[in-house]
Amino acid sequence: MKVMVPVKRVLDYNVKPRVKADGTGVDLANVKMSMNPFDEIAVEEAIRLKDKGVTEIVVVSIGEQKSQETLRTALAMGADRAILVVSEDRVEPLGVAKLLQAIVAEEKPDLIILGKQAIDDDNNQTGQMLAGLMGVGQATFASKVELTADSVTVTREVDGGSETETLTLPAIITVDLRLNEPRYASLPNIMKAKSKPMAQKTPGDYGVDVTPRVTTLKVVEPAKRSAGVKVADVDELVAKLKAMGVAK
Ligand code: AMP
Questions:
Q1: Dihedral angle, C-alpha 69, 32, 12, 198, nearest 10 °
Q2: Per its UniProt record, what SMART domains does this chain match (predicted)?
Q3: What are phi and psi of 92, to 5 degrees?
C-alpha cells in the first residue's frame, strides 16, 4: 500500500514573523524555515502505518528549490521517495491541489495524508480541495487513524467532541495536533536520506497553471496590545468586571 504525504516549507514556528517594510508580505530573508508542523505529524503517521500494511511513502513538496531540505527531513524521518515541484513563486492552495491531483494520477497512492493547515497562510484548504478534485472521501482534523486493506477509520476533532468516520480507499486525511508526536531524525538516518531518490519537476510538467487568482493588497502587523492590569484577588477582579458591566 502506498501513502503520499505533501509537506510544505514554512517559516519556523519559533520565529516571530516580521512584515516587509513595503507591506507586500512577510519578510522571509535570512529567517529559519522548517517543515510545517502539521506535516511532520502527517509524515510520522505514515511511518507508523508501515506496521499496518504501508509499503511505500512518497513525500511531495511544491515550492522553491530550498524545499529540498524539507523533503530530506521527511526522508530522514522514514519516507522512501520524494518529488519536488519547483516554483519560486508562491502557489495558492488551488494550484497546489491541482498539482497534487496530477501527481496522484501518476503515483496512484491508496492514502494521502496532509497537514490540516500550513502555519504560514493558515488556509486549511488544500486537503479539502484535493478531495473535491479527485472525488474521493476526506476526513479532516484526524486525531486517530486505523487502516485496513481497503478502508481507513478516522477519529476527527469537531467542536462538540469527536466524530468517527470510515472512508473507502483511496482517501484523504488531514491531521490535527493530537494525532501523534513526530520523531526526530537520527544522524544515521539523516545520512541515509541523502541517497534516497528525489525527482524534480515543474508545474509545466503536469500542465497545471499556477497563476495566482488572489491578489494580496496589504500585509500589516497585528495591532499592539495595551498593557493589562494585575488584580490582587478574586474580589477585586469581580468588582472590576462589575464596574465594566461584564459581570453582575
Ligand atoms: P493549507 O491548505 O495551505 O493550509 O495547507 C494544508 C496542507 O496542504 C499542508 O499541511 C500540506 O500538507 C499541504 N500543502 C499546502 N501547501 C503545500 C505545498 N506548497 N507543498 C506541499 N504540500 C502543501
A1: -10
A2: ETF (SM00893)
A3: -75, 160
Ligand 1: residues within 6 Å at CB?
A: 6-8, 36, 38-39, 42, 60-63, 91, 93, 96, 114-115, 117-118, 121, 123-127
Give 76-132 pLDDT, tens digit per residue.
Answer: 999 999 999 999 999 999 999 999 999 999 999 999 999 999 999 999 999 999 999
Q: What is the pTM of this model?
A: 0.92
The rounded mean pLDDT for the chain is 96
Assign 3-class secondary structure to 9-27.
EEECCCCCCCECCCCCCEC
62 alpha carbon, distance to own chain's centre: 12
Closest by CA position to 102, among listed 207, 193, 182, 21: 207
- Site to substitute for ligand 1 among 86, 126, 176, most atoms within 8 A of C-beta: 126
